[in-house]
Structure formats: structure tokens, C-alpha cells
Write a structure and sequence with these properties.
The chain contains five helices and no strands. By secondary structure, it is mainly α. The chain has one domain: Orthogonal Bundle (434 Repressor (Amino-terminal Domain)), CATH 1.10.260.40. It is elongated.
Length: about 90
């Protein structure tokens, strides 16, 4: 897909869900989040659930944070909890 048809698809989606084209472009380029409002609109138009779109945003947010803080995360040591099972007496 070339740049002009990519933009046309963004524009078409924006028109279909009733938002400014810049909103879709900013979402595509990671400059704006998919809000619940946008998720509801996209779900209605594209046939995927609102939760799907919010999960896509959540997954993206997690990856951005991992990338942003990778060296700090690498320095964190896992704590393993010791869990004992108690037998119930009858």
C-alpha cells in the first residue's frame, strides 16, 4: 500500500466514525492513544469489539514502557515467594 492509499484509508475511517482525520493519523503514528470513545466508534464501524481496540492500545503502551525503561527493568531481580500448602484436617 503506497502512502497516498494509506492516507486515503485513514481518511475513510475517520469519515466513517465521525472524527477528524488527524485523530486517526496520530493514532497510527503513536502520537495519540485509542480512547474508549474512539474504541467504541471503531468497534461499530470495523466489527471488532471495543475491548479489542483498548487491548491493542494497552499492548502498545506496555511495549513502549518496556522500551523506555529497559535498563531499569533489566536491573530488577525477581522475588520468588515460598508458598506452603497446608493440609486440611477433617
Amino acid at each position: 500500500m503506497d502512502a497516498s492509499s494509506h492516507w486515503a484509508s485513514q481518511y475513510r475511517l475517520a469519515q466513517a466514525i465521525g472524527v477528524p482525520p488527524c485523530r486517526i493519523n496520530e493514532i497510527v503514528h503513536g502520537k495519540r492513544r485509542i480512547t474508549p470513545e474512539t474504541a467504541v466508534r471503531m468497534a461499530k464501524t470495523l466489527g471488532l469489539s471495543e475491548r479489542y481496540w483498548l487491548n491493542v492500545q494497552g499492548d502498545y503502551d506496555i511495549e513502549v514502557e518496556k522500551d523506555r525503561h529497559q535498563s531499569e527493568l533489566d536491573a530488577i531481580t525477581r522475588i520468588i515467594a515460598c508458598v506452603t500448602r497446608r493440609r486440611h484436617r477433617r
